[in-house]
Design goal:
Layout: E1 2-9, H1 13-25, E2 31-34, H2 43-46, H3 58-61, H4 77-90, E3 97-98, E4 102-109, E5 114-120, E6 127-137, E7 142-147, E8 161-163, E9 178-182, H5 186-196, E10 201-206, E11 212-215, H6 220-228, H7 231-255, H8 257-272, H9 278-281, E12 294-297, H10 300-306, E13 310-314, E14 317-321, E15 324-327, E16 332-334, E17 337-340, E18 344-346, E19 353-356, E20 359-360, E21 368-369, E22 373-374, E23 380-382, H11 391-412, E24 414-419, E25 432-433, H12 441-445, E26 452-453, H13 465-474, E27 482-487
Parallel strand pairs: 1-2, 1-6, 2-3, 4-19, 6-23, 8-17, 9-10, 9-17, 10-13, 11-12
Antiparallel strand pairs: 4-5, 5-6, 7-18, 14-15, 15-16, 19-20, 21-22, 24-27, 25-26
Helix pairs in contact: 1-11, 5-10, 6-7, 7-8, 11-13
Length: 507
């Protein structure tokens, strides 16, 4: 059994970023990254479908401490993967990664003030145990072993190839083939123009439209700054500008919803022309940012539609048949290949079975603390990013907070940090489902798994970068809700094992 001060689960964009912050701000802490797969990069190594790219600009999706120097602000997957690998190698984080290590369970002991982790060494290659003082979950929010796959009627009768983008076959040949893509999210919006370059035709089938916004793949202002300023300064200025612009735009969309709707739809009409049925195919039934806005680079989707290489069908699927799909309208779509871009299967706590002092943790019964910890669960932080902004902005805030917390615990000689509802301030707290304002299907399907939110800070996952800066970066670590306890050196018989429900007001 091997002990570390911190175990980081996952060696993707989040895990590498958190490791950098940890070794910079807490250099005396020992740490390890346990990666379930055999490669670095997480999402950016797992997904291999044509056209895989970011839908956030890389000056905000990139790390604050490492300038993005690629040519495109909306970058392709392989370039992002290279960026993550380069970050890990430059900072010697690679030395701390243990590959093919799947954490299956985590058990907290108050008496020992540590986590015990059961870890599988790949399938059929044995098991091991690690212990740690702090557990930092950086494995994202979706399952790597499967995506969301609806039970389509008669899918087994289809004689062509049925593919989920999460498990893209390396040898899939779609040149000259008729392709149907089911879905209208970010993955579908990426696949359609990319496959249209070589396929005979690509048809995107959607039950309902999604808001789409086209932006240049190259940030020309950033390029100008890089010509005249040092790389780090140019990157910092661009990052600051883009964060402010993106947040300003988000606030505007929430304050003047109708104008935002009309502006977005007007841009689609301009791109596709007056004869295209924008009302049917690109006018959603929900408000902007109730689901993530789909960003496309340089009008690529519109160009594929205008060139006759791609088209959009808004209808529901009745059933599969031998050579394609039958729709509820009665229309049929012929296909050699059907891509089921139907979304992710989410999990909480990276799918790890978690218990505290012998009691299993049901995360749906906990409250989210600052969007990164869970009520009554000690020394555990989950790093997740934003749905309405660049993922890494929240990861940076989370990593900084963990370092501040660790240093404060050391200063006070405490071994345990536990978020708990306050007896007075939270006595009348109202519990709400997490992410109620975000209506994307993949979120709603997993809503029952996730922690509750309160009607007040710090029991909220705000989705707002500036609000989070105040709550996470600027507010004191000790806020009355996070309780530091379990002093180092205390005799074990004096350590109180507090039930998980202690001090919790009725919600």
């Amino acid at each position: 059994m091997t002990h570390y001060n911190v175990v980081i689960v996952g060696a993707g964009l989040s895990g590498i970023g958190c490791a950098y912050h940890l070794q910079t701000a807490c250099p005396e802490k020992s740490f390890v990254l346990l990666e379930a797969r055999d490669a670095i990069g997480g999402t950016w190594d797992l997904f291999r479908y044509p056209g895989i790219r970011s839908d956030s600009d890389m000056h905000t999706l990139g790390y604050a401490f490492k300038p993005w120097e690629g040519g495109k602000a909306l970058a392709d997957g392989p370039s992002i993967l290279d960026y993550i690998k380069e970050t890990a190698e430059e900072n010697r984080i690679t030395d701390h990664i243990r590959f093919n290590r799947q954490v299956t369970s985590a058990r907290w002991s108050t008496r020992e003030a540590c986590w015990t982790l059961d870890v599988e060494h790949g399938k059929g290659h044995g098991r091991d145990r690690y212990t740690c003082d702090m557990l930092l979950l950086c494995g994202g929010y979706y399952r790597y072993d499967r995506g969301h796959a609806p039970a389509f009627k008669d899918a087994d009768t289809f004689q062509g190839q049925l593919v989920h983008p999460q498990f893209w076959p390396e040898d899939l040949d779609y040149a000259g083939k008729k392709v149907v893509v089911i879905g209208s999210g970010a993955t579908a919006m990426t696949l359609v123009p990319a496959m249209a370059k070589d396929a005979a035709s690509v048809t995107m089938v959607q039950r309902s439209p999604t808001y789409v916004y086209s932006m240049p793949s190259i940030d020309h202002e950033a390029e100008r700054l890089r010509k005249y300023l040092p790389a780090k300064l140019a990157y910092a200025i661009t990052r600051w500008r883009n964060i402010r612009m993106n947040q300003w735009y988000y606030y505007q969309t929430r304050e003047d919803v109708e104008k935002t709707k009309q502006d977005l739809i007007h841009l689609v009409r301009e791109a596709l022309g007056p004869d295209y049925d924008v009302e049917k195919h690109f006018t959603p039934r929900y408000n902007p940012w109730d689901q993530r806005l789909c960003v496309i680079p340089d009008d690529d989707l519109y160009d594929a539609i205008n060139a006759g290489k791609a088209n959009v069908v808004t209808d529901e699927i009745d059933r599969f048949n031998a050579d394609g799909l039958k729709l509820k309208s009665g229309d049929e779509l012929k296909a050699d290949i059907i891509i089921s871009a139907t979304g992710l299967a989410l999990n909480v706590a990276n799918g790890i079975d978690v218990s505290v002092d012998g009691e299993p943790v049901d995360f749906a019964e906990t409250f989210s603390y600052k969007g990164m910890m869970f009520s009554d669960v000690p020394n555990l932080v989950q790093a997740t990013g934003y749905f309405n902004a660049s993922w890494t902005l929240k990861i940076d805030l989370t990593a900084e907070y963990v370092c501040r917390l660790l240093n404060l615990m050391d200063k006070q000689g405490m071994r345990q940090a536990t978020p708990r509802l306050r007896e007075v301030e939270d006595a009348d707290i109202k519990a709400m489902s997490g992410n109620d304002a975000f209506t994307a299907g993949y979120i709603k399907r997993a809503q029952h798994l996730f922690p509750k939110q309160g009607d007040r800070a710090p029991w909220q996952q705000t989705g707002d970068y500036y609000a989070d800066k105040k709550m996470i970066r600027e507010a004191p670590v000790e806020d009355g809700a996070l309780r530091l306890s379990n002093p180092a050196g205390a005799p074990k018989e004096q350590v109180s094992v507090t039930p998980a429900t202690a001090d919790r007001p009725a919600a």
